[in-house]
Amino acid sequence: MQTRNLKNRDDRAHALLLGGAVREMTPSVYEVTGSKHYTVITLSATTTCTCPDHEYRQVVCKHIRAVELYQASTHQMHTVREMVVA
Ligand SMILES: [Zn+2]
Asked: Is pTM beyond 0.85 here?
């Protein structure tokens, strides 16, 4: 069940990325626009997001995953699909 949840979140992150929802403001600040607009900040060891999912539940939300996928797809030319499966 946990695996399914993770996969669904990654699917949503993937959809955000493909939909052009991720905007790189600086190398460590990203804006992700889904149903709402959130800011994802990546620092050396921690990544934070302004959405309730992350702030209250401390989970890696779909916005953070979308930024991770974005970084992976721009910095290495792996396909996003491979990242989601992995
Ligand atoms: Zn979030």
From this structure: no
